[in-house]
Amino acid sequence: MMNKQVLYALGSILLLTISIPHASAQLMKEKVEFTRADSLRGNLTPLRTCYDIQYYHLDVKVDIDNKYISGSNLFRFKATQDFNRLQFDLFANLKVNKVVYKGKELPFKREFNAVFVDFPSKIEKGKIDEFTVYYEGHPQVAARAPWDGGFDWKTDSKGKPWVATACQGMGASVWWPNKDHQYDEVDSMLISVAVPKEVMNVSNGRLVNVEKMKDGYNKYHWKVVNPINNYNVALNIGDYIHFKEDFKGEKGPLTMDYYILRENDQAEKKQHLIKNATETLTAFEHWFGPYPFYEDGYKLVETSHTGMEHQSAVAYGNHYQNGYRGRDASGTGWGQKWDFIVVHESGHEWFGNNITSADLADMWIHESFTNYSEALFIDYFYGKEANQAYVHGNRSGIQNDSPTQGPYHVNKEGSGDMYPKGGVMLNMIRTMIDNDEKWRAILRGLNKDFYHQQVDYQDIVQYIVNKSGIDLTKVFEQYVQHADIPTLEIRTDASGKVYGRWISEVANFQMPIHLGIKGNKKQLISLNKKFTEINIPGLTKENIDIDTFNYYIGVLVE
């Protein structure tokens, strides 16, 4: 969406000019209609909530020449209620060969990408049980990984296979059978992947065994002991070399493993990754608390696609350069001092992997906080002013086309504004709190109190409101649940008194903002939708100074 110049004037006198993105586009957009398939994928029916996933063993063989996969997944679960039917998910283009329970095949029915399984007798509440799904087929090819999900079939410069999976949003059921909803993360899992012997597979967690098979394949067994969301489970197949080191973290030594293509086995490239990864973990443990997955370690794995936050196996494809493939979206230069993919995707280990949205509608929780983590990385190494400049520069990418929160229960995320607009909003909230130690305590507290949990909009908003002591509910409502931004209207009366109010579509909107007299220190003033006198001695409409650098707002001065 193109930006438009909005001129705020009264009568014939132009008092203030400010550029903000056009924000009424959502009114012109066609209404999105959702289907039965969307509901099956995104809704939590009793057929899904009746069981709690505790363990998977995904065992799959990858036939690279034919772009074909075959294997099985064991589901171990605890019944949360009595039931004799459940739903799991697998894309319809993949064949379910059989579902086996206690040595016998179970009847099942398929509808779109959902699979419904009938058990021979009632599974009683509290019982721990298991079944195994056997499947095969040609998985969907990712047309533009990681944004279009599926398998990314590539080769390296030597012609050797270079394959990866990426499926955020679309869902892991695009390539393996699972209970494909973010609200229920498996507690632990074993990932066993058979690949041709000239390459290797790198997945999440720790490598526990390499099994040499008789058919010219090797099977790599990776064990994950922490909860993991489905879309984070990944395969990375290539001619990799491995190097490692330890990071001295808040919880002790953290293993850092690197898997890069053999052709990139060069000292300067290795050092680039080590430097950026070490600095990233240093900054984020400061701001967010201990890395959430010490038991599974930290890895960077080179991929053909740009990158993804695969838990404990972060996909990296930024070509060993700073910025985002050499570019700085903020236009400030601060984004070219560090490797964007290492920083951003590793930031998701805290927001996205440790704290996970229970519904895709709240993906803004992942992306807003992780976009903001880039600024906090800058803050740690270059200072707060550099941080604020970077955030301000990122405004150029905001479209204000639709809310950053999507609709619930249909597996639909919100606007891509969840990245830059979310980071801008969090910088605003930090500015309102005006106490950096309290702000850091809130960020660390989120990761401690919601450790390995699934959350929603209310969880995050109420936590920040409670810990900050400021009622920010309307701020979140405005910037997350609406596309528009609020406008601060300033006017004077006949006696010269200055009044302010907010123009907003949010009912009972209120938000504090820093303002004052030019050249003097700004004060935090609380305003709502009714004109309120701004009691700053000597303030006039001519000398008013509004912090539009840190507050993303429109301004109308009368």
Concise summary:
This protein has 558 residues and is an alpha+beta fold. It has eleven helices and 31 strands.
Keywords:
558 residues; alpha+beta; eight-stranded mixed beta sheet; five-stranded mixed beta sheet; 22% helix; 35% strand; globular; disordered N terminus
Please explain how this structure is put together.
The N terminus is likely disordered. The chain is an alpha+beta fold. Strands 7-6-10-4-3-13-16-15 form an eight-stranded mixed sheet. A five-stranded mixed sheet has the order 18-19-20-22-21, with helices on one face. The radius of gyration is 26 Å and the shape is globular.
Molecular shape:
globular
**Whole-angstrom Rg:** 26 Å
The N- and C-terminal alpha carbons lie at a distance of 29 Å
Binned strand content:
25-35%
Described by strand count, sense and barrel closure, the largest sheet is:
8 strands, mixed
Low-confidence stretches: 1-30
Please give the count of helices.
11
Q: Looking across the biggest beta sheet, what order are the strands in? A: 7-6-10-4-3-13-16-15
Q: Report the average pLDDT across residues.
A: 94
> Using DSSP, what is the number of strands?
31
Q: SS-based structural class? A: alpha+beta
Helicity level, as a percent range? 10-25%
